[in-house]
Amino acid sequence: MDITAAVVSQPGGAFELEQLELAAPRDNEVLVRIVGVGLCHTDLICRDQLYPVPLPAVLGHEGSGVVEAVGAAVRDLTPGDHVVLSFHACGACKNCVRGLPSRCINLFESNFAGARADGSCALSRGDKAIHGHFFAQSSFATYALASSSNTVKVDRDVPLEMLGPLGCGVQTGAGAVINTLKPQAGSSVAIFGCGSVGLAAVMAASLAGCATIIAVEPHGARRRLALELGATHALDPAEVEPVQAILDLTEGGSDYSLECTANPSVLRQAVDALTVTGTCALIGAAPMGTEVSLDMNSIMFGRTVTGVIEGDSIPAQFIPKLVALYKQGRFPLDKLITFYPLEDIEQAVQDSESGRVVKAVLRPGA
Fold first, then answer.
1. What is the pLDDT of residue 365?
2. Were 310 and a residue from 51, 102, 134, 294 both cysteine, which residue would form a disulfide, CB within 3.0 to 4.6 Å?
3. pTM of full prediction above 0.85
């Protein structure tokens, strides 16, 4: 079928709308009409080749939409279902079979190879293949082919166009708190960086009953939103030294911290702000090979640094829980989102990179 998709053709290049051909779904694939797709930091670092995705490519990995057709082997989805598309895991490695899909040993190949596992591509322009299957979806498009295993059915009574970010960024921030750190009620947490990931973590920390939730963020509008979403304190790192401020607010250090900026110096701050036995969750996706310096004695005294991918979640279980919390008014996802038509993707990129918006969501049908 013919589709419209945003194609990036060279490192750091613009997303340009093109007419492409999309193949029919294979046995385990699902054809989804995209109604909304979040713009994520990972899309931009792949555009810039900080993660080496082959180009030209259709990116996009926070898609939501309606199932149009399913392959012959798909049993749990039918045309008309409302779905969110998430990350892909091989399903066969030792971590997948242990129920740890975000720790899939083949995670990079499954999401960043730009093709199916057999090397084929479902997208083309005439006789030229275009790389797709990004996170097994490539949803910067009017239609996407997903795997049945990364397609999550959701309730029909929620605005579908805003649910795509649950598939990656929002799931990552909320899951890092709920699934990874699992803070006790009354504990303290410091969140460094309040884009959509960090603000999802703020909401999750509030849900978990954290008594002290400290947001560290240079953008004033995002600090104000963090306070609205449950933060008890919001620090401007240009005006206060964050580590000392957190030590003062928590009487010796935060029980937990999250690093959401991919900045090595900020990770050092997130670790230094911990109390003894505290845990820092590293979320920010830095360029390959990025190194950080930590005080070995600080770690020796019982502090922990743990990496988090996709919120350590099982999407088919976790995404419906977030939808249920939204319906109850306890997880106001809509406060993060600004909508753009797909043809305005470059404006959405500019607004996201400048910090003017928290989470841009593209609507291909708008």
1. 80
2. 102
3. yes
| CATH code assigned to 2-167+332-363 | 3.90.180.10
- Asked if residue 242 has a cis previous peptide bond (ω within 30° of 0), the answer is no
Q: Strand 254-259 and strand 188-192: pairing?
A: parallel
Q: Which fold has domain 173-308?
A: Rossmann fold (3.40.50)
- Give whole-number Cα distances, 225 to 43, 243, 248, 354, in Å: 24, 22, 23, 17
Residue whose C-alpha is closest to residue 51's, from 259, 287, 257: 287
- Taking residue 232's Cβ as centre, other Cβ atoms within 10 Å add up to 18
Could you give the dihedral angle defined by the CA atoms of residues 348, 130, 197 and 263, in that order, rounded to the nearest 10 degrees? -100
| Model confidence at 119: pLDDT above 90 | yes
Residue 304, φ and ψ in degrees, nearest 5: -125, 140
Mean pLDDT of 237-256: 97
Sheet containing 57-58, strands listed edge to edge, beginning at the edge strand earlier in sequence: 57-58, 2-8, 15-22, 123-125, 128-130
Residue boundaries of the structural domains of the chain: 2-167+332-363, 173-308
Pull the structure tokens for residue 331.
């997880």
